[in-house]
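Quarterly update from the structural biology core.
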Amino acid sequence: MGKTALVIGAGRGIGKAIALRLARDGFDLVGTASRDAASLAEVRKGTEEAGRRFTGLVFSVEDRAAAAEALTGCFGEDAPEVIVYNAGIARDNLFVFMSPEEWDAVIRTNLDGFYNTVQPLLMGMMARRSGRIVAISSASGQTGQGGQVNYSASKAGLIGAVKALAREVGRKNILVNAVAPGFIETAMTADLPREKILPLIPLNRSGHPEEVAGVVSFLCGPDSAYIQGQVLAVNGGLVM
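Predicted structure, tokenized:
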């Protein structure tokens, strides 16, 4: 029976690259999207071309009941070998002008969603005494970024959650780590001022989703078996 990886937020950008990389690594894929199953079409195609099975789920990670229903319906009392939490949105604004809606939307998706999707599956991992959990944080969660108090708080919260959870479940052979991308070429960063950002990056270029996916692949593979509660930065030197 094949190994299964669950990628939350698999429809585009970093999540899509992660899903396709894990399929090539030999995992069957369960990929989620928040609104439209059609956004998972390319991941489905790439997974099947890699000779692996694909299952698509559509639910909002903000909706605790919907997430639990979808995931329990898919896995029952079992759990995937790998969970990658990649859901994330940005609603940037200066804190003094930030609306309650801008704050709440980011925290509910980026941080609450981690609980809503990972916690229902954790008992299955513990019963099996194995698993890998990878949360996609951000360089903004490591250092803070002006105009992103909500986003930085949510991504820093993920790092704290990863470190605490790693202490709780390490004895069950469940590895929990985070990956913190910097300026990666995705739809989320398309409108950012490259001319101001690139001079801050020692490698003087943006990153690619596949470069993040490679680090996730490492954390889900055999060579990372002694890495626990860590944050692996993929940022070209933006944060050291």
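Residues 3-234 form a domain with the Rossmann fold fold (CATH 3.40.50.720).
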